[in-house]
Design a protein that fits this description.
93 residues; mainly beta; SH3 type barrels; seven-stranded antiparallel sheet; 1 helix
Length: 93
Amino acid sequence: MTSEHLNAILKESRASTDKQGWYTLPAGTTLNMHVAHSGTGFAVNSVEAIRANSDLVYARTSKKQLFCFARDDIFAILIDGITGEPARRAGFG
């Protein structure tokens, strides 16, 4: 993932920055990050805050876990619960 991609996702999620450089998501919004390296992939769910530098991305979850990835290994991010969007309903409609 490029820095432009990550910045666009953070803008769309309406994240705000703090003094330490963490992008914190609004209440009720989380990210799910999909990461892969050398053919092995995994997902990090319920990410509440992200901090990035040139090569690394740090992700803090709602369980207060801290993950660190190479930016190039992130291939997808799902924004869940964007503020101001209608709630998802069960079913087809």
